[in-house]
Structures are given as structure tokens and as C-alpha cells.
Design a protein that fits this description.
Length: 154
């Protein structure tokens, strides 16, 4: 599946508002498992391969939301605490992360497809460092950081 087919499927769902945001988030999670082994792939390619890490998944959610006329921005933190799930608040790791902030009718919610239990406004991580708008510098830093992680794991 490619990202444009995903956009078409989301449009055809006829959801609106937060139901559409939830549908998009779950859709990307369903078709893209979390992976660090294709960090050099563009998000479109990562989606087609069915795997990617946080910025690739967040970009796909952001892209689809934009195509269905929902306002979203990519944000990141250099440090977040991650939990096994929303319900099990046992910390499993910490690290940098990228996700979407979505605004609908003066309500802003964090949206992340990296965990299947996540829903808009209720995610399995807590930012510890400041949250900032995602940019090219953050992208380069994230790419290098993941490349180092992958090298150290081999």
C-alpha cells in the first residue's frame, strides 16, 4: 500500500473531526510497524514498506491529515519517557520522539501512531524535555542519533 491509497481510504471512511484523526492514527499504526532498520527511507517509502520510526510515522499521519483538511503540525522532544501502554504506566525506555499536534475547534491534542493503544490526547509517552516544532535541524539530529543507535546494536 502507498500513502496516496491511504489518503483515499481515509477520505472514503467519511469520518470527520476527532473520529477522522483517530481513524488516521490507527490506520498508520495498522500499516506501519515501528522499526529502526529503514531510517534512511523517506516517509512515503517507509509507509510503502510498512515500517518506520517515529518521524516517518508522524510525517505520514501529518500528510494524511493535511489531505483530509485537518490542521496538524509535527513536534518533537529530545527526551520522553515511554510506557508499555497507556494503561500500564511502567516506564520501558526513554528517548527522543516525533509526533503530531492536532488542533480542532480550539482543542489541541497529541497524536502518535507508534503504539496501537494510543488515541488523540492520550499517548504512551510523556515529554520530559521541551516540546518544539519539528524542523530540518531536528530531522538531521534524529537521523544521526538513530544511525548511531543502529550501529551500536550491531
Amino acid at each position: 500500500m502507498n500513502i496516496d491509497e491511504a489518503v483515499k481510504a481515509c477520505r472514503e471512511s467519511q469520518y470527520t473531526g476527532w473520529q477522522m484523526v483517530t481513524f488516521v492514527q490507527k490506520y498508520v499504526n495498522k500499516y506501519m510497524r515501528f522499526s529502526l532498520d529503514n531510517t534512511s527511507d523517506a516517509p512515503r517509502t517507509a509507509f510503502s514498506k510498512g515500517k518506520g520510526y517515529s518521524w516517518q510515522q508522524a510525517w505520514c499521519v501529518h500528510y494524511i491529515l493535511k489531505k483530509v483538511n485537518i490542521r496538524s503540525e509535527l513536534v518533537y522532544t529530545t527526551k520522553a519517557d515511554f510506557y508499555e501502554s497507556r494503561s500500564k504506566r511502567q516506564k520501558i525506555r526513554e528517548g527522543a520522539h516525533v509526533w503530531c499536534r492536532v488542533r480542532l475547534n480550539d482543542t489541541v491534542k497529541d497524536v502518535c501512531s507508534c503504539n496501537k493503544e494510543n488515541v488523540p490526547g492520550d499517548v504512551n509517552f510523556v515529554p520530559v524535555a521541551p516540546v518544539r516544532r519539528y524542523n530540518l535541524i531536528a530531522q538531521a539530529g534524529g537521523y544521526l542519533g538513530v544511525a548511531i543507535l543502529n550501529k551500536n546494536e550491531k
